[in-house]
Amino acid sequence: MAAESSRAPQRAREIMAGASAVTALTGAGISTASGIPDFRGPQGVWTNNPAAARMFDIEAYLADPDLRAQAWRSRSEHPAWRARPNDGHRALVDLERQGRLRALVTQNIDELHQSAGSGLQAPVLEVHGSLKRAVCLSCGWRGTMEAVLARVAAGEADPPCEVCGGILKSDTVSFGQSLDRQLLRESARAAAECDVLLAVGTSLQVNPVAGLVPLAHEAGAEVVIVNAEPTPFDAIAGAVVRGQIEQVLPELVAA
Ligand code: NAD
Questions:
Q1: 49-65 pLDDT, tens per residue?
Q2: Contact criterion met (CB below 8 Å) for 11 and 85
């Protein structure tokens, strides 16, 4: 059962101190201290502007050129382009260097884990893709987002694929799109094979990724949740920590 929040840090430290194969599952909350707002937190993009969620619906994106133009503007101005990793990202690099990270499954699309230095000994599994790549929804062409944004800056409101004329999009998973099956399989294996599933900065409201938490639990792993707000899986966690990730995570990893 979840520990009382006042006692959670100690229990969380104990669990982390005994961990030898951690699968970390991160969400937007680990990047808010780097200046990238989350979606559902108190200052979240959708909390402040529910209409913005439409840009992340694949049917609406395909049907509406104005929405696509809005999405390209939003990608150009995305804070991820100037964001730097924070102590939360760096703590997971330390865990990897200690040889205790089995895998880092991230729902984030900002590549800040890789900027911090993650991914050298344990895989970073970007289950929701990356903002820094573009993809053609017709022919599957992939390229850098920077190259497409240069076309937007040069005046193309909704640049088409240069190979087939199809609709381009960031290489991220929108509502209505499937996740990469291979990445999902690898993530499920990492959840099933870890001794601690460490969920950080995610509201755990989006499946199938949220399902990795009960999967790990049922396979015998301890679950540690670090998040400012409650999640649907707090009750199965061995410890729940409500503090700020960038302060809590370095402590947990040092343990
Ligand atoms: P979410 O917005 O649903 O939940 C984030 C959670 O983090 C919230 O519960 C919030 O209270 C908590 N939080 C925020 N800052 C925190 C902090 N400093 N310390 C502790 N807790 C903090 O995010 P989600 O579960 O990742 O789902 C949103 C989806 O949107 C993701 O799948 C992702 O693809 C995308 N997204 C990505 C980014 C990014 O790449 N940085 C940003 C926004 C959204």
A1: 888 889 999 999 999 99
A2: no
Architecture of the CATH domain 40-82+130-172: 2-Layer Sandwich (3.30)
**Domain layout of the chain by residue ranges:** 1-36+84-128+179-255, 40-82+130-172
- CA-33 nearest atom, ligand 1: 18
Give kind and range of the element (H or E) at residue 104: strand 101-106
CATH of region 1-36+84-128+179-255: 3.40.50.1220
How far away, in angstroms, is 107 Cα from ligand 1 center?
8
What global pTM score does this model have? 0.94
Q: How far is the CA of 139 from the centre of ligand 1 (A)?
A: 31
Is the Cβ–Cβ distance between 35 and 83 less than 8 Å?
A: yes
How remote is the CA of residue 44 from the centroid of ligand 1, in Å? Answer: 8
By annotation, the residues acting in catalysis are 128
Regions of the chain short of the pLDDT cut 70: 1-8, 255
Cα 232 from Cα 14, distance rounded (Å): 23
Check pocket membership of 29 for ligand 1, CB cut-off 6 A: yes
